[in-house]
Amino acid sequence: MSSEIILEVTNLAVEFATYGGSVQAVRDVSFNLHKGTTLAIVGESGCGKSVTVQTLLGLIPMPPGRITAGSARLRGAELLGLSADRLNHYRGKRIGMIFQDAMSAMNPTMTIGDQIAETLIVHMGMSAAAARQEVITLLTQVQIPEPERRLRQYPFEFSGGMLQRAMIALSIACQPEVLIADEPTTALDVTIQAQILQLLESLQQSRGLSIILITHDLGVVARMAHEVAVMYAGQIVEQGSVDDIFYRSAHPYTVGLKAAMPGRSAHKSVLQEIPGSPPDLFAPPAGCGFNARCPHVMQLCTSQAPPLFGTSHQARCWLQHAAAPAQALYQQLIASVRS
Questions:
Q1: What percent of the chain has pLDDT over 70?
Q2: pLDDT digits (tens, 9 = 90+) for 14-64
Q3: Torsion, CA 173, CA 193, CA 38, CA 337, rounded to 10
Q4: What's the number of CA atoms in the CB half-sphere (13 Å) around residue 27?
Q5: CB 171 within 8 A of CB 116
Q6: Residue 206: how many CB atoms within 10 A of its CB?
Q7: Where residue 319 falls among pLDDT bands split at 50, 70, 90?
Q8: Average pLDDT value for residue range 91-112
Q9: Domain 1-94+176-264 falls in which CATH fold?
Q10: What does the pLDDT look like over 118-149, one tens digit per residue?
Q11: Residue 335's pLDDT is what?
């Protein structure tokens, strides 16, 4: 893995003002994205994955959203707090984004070709004729057949898989360094999912892209990711290499996610659920956010928030403290899930 850091996010905190109070959606999130690698941010719905990356691009409406702390630097240049005009020098040009629902993200009143050409004209200063030729090249690269005809069609004339490919073409049009893929395969069937993931891998290799992959699918994580950050209740509770996360899990929530995955073995006919519900982020718990659902909860977990233990492989869990009494039992649990 490259040691060159492209994007550095430090202690990011985001909250939303509502009639019921302030929702602390993202709490003290830090991660690094290295050149040419894929960082997967994984967790169940509502854990803060999408809010985290949308904040980097200024896509969170403010108000009601508000950045209360933190920094996000792209090659040393601060992104947070920039005006919309300044952010436009980064989003679309140096940071591309594949949105979760391609149909909603595309303009239904414009042809596919015009939408991709627009970003080339605005960000790259191309003429209309040059932009059209580049659109044909891009559609070919994302494996859309008959690009000269397809660029004149509207989003509703594309299938789900084709529309996702067009969205990818739009996101890479200006040759960004960073590509954010927010649940890029959620609405697609299994065969098309595999094709889209293969396309992203191919583009990463040919263009040297650094990818942030937002997903709740651990199967996608295992295939695509080099580094993984596991989020829960607005925090990163574990992060490390993909091998660390799958084979040396250090947080009970990560273990629970893996246990809930369908297995290939015939004896695993019943999926293991994680009991309970995520905490109320209007008033996050004083201790560990996972304590109400954790099978290894200790008294300390309910009163003091754990720090991140570890260096390259980190976990926000008191079980990783050298004096934790449940350490031996926890290691047995990990071994049973692994088998």
A1: 92
A2: 999 888 888 999 999 999 999 999 999 998 888 888 899 999 988 888 888
A3: 170
A4: 23
A5: no
A6: 9
A7: confident
A8: 86
A9: Rossmann fold (3.40.50)
A10: 999 988 888 999 999 999 999 998 888 898 99
A11: 53
- What's the rounded mean pLDDT across residues 313-338? 68
d(CA 269, CA 267): 6
* pTM for the predicted model, two decimal places: 0.87
- Whole-angstrom distance, CA of residue 60 vs CA of residue 68: 13
Token digits of residue 149 = 């005809």
Per-residue model confidence as pLDDT tens digits over 305-318:
888 888 889 999 98
- Dig out the tokens for 18 from the structure: 């509502």
| Per-residue CA distances from 38 to 35, 103, 133, 175, 196 (Å) | 9, 25, 30, 17, 15
Domain with CATH 3.40.50.300 in the chain: 1-94+176-264
Cα 52-57-58 angle, rounded to 5 deg: 90
Half-sphere exposure of 243 (CA within 13 A, CB side): 1
The backbone region for 239, taken as left when phi is positive above 0, alpha when psi lies in -120 to 50, beta otherwise, is: beta
Quick one: CA dihedral 325, 327, 332, 337, positive or negative?
A: positive
Say how far apart CA 139 and CA 167 lie, in whole Å: 10
Strands 178-182 and 65-74: unpaired
β pairing state of 38-42 and 227-232: parallel
Cβ burial, residue 45 (10 Å; 0-12/13-18/19+): exposed
Beta strands 235-241 and 65-74 are unpaired
Q: Are strands 38-42 and 210-215 parallel, antiparallel or unpaired?
A: parallel
Question: Which DSSP state fits 63?
Answer: T
Residue whose structure tokens are 């854990």 = 47
Residue found under tokens 């630097």 = 73
Phi-psi region of 267 (alpha: psi -120 to 50; beta: other; left: phi over 0): alpha
C-alpha 327, offset from chain centre: 30
* Torsion (CA) 33, 37, 43, 45 in degrees, nearest 10: 90
Position 264 scores a pLDDT of: 61
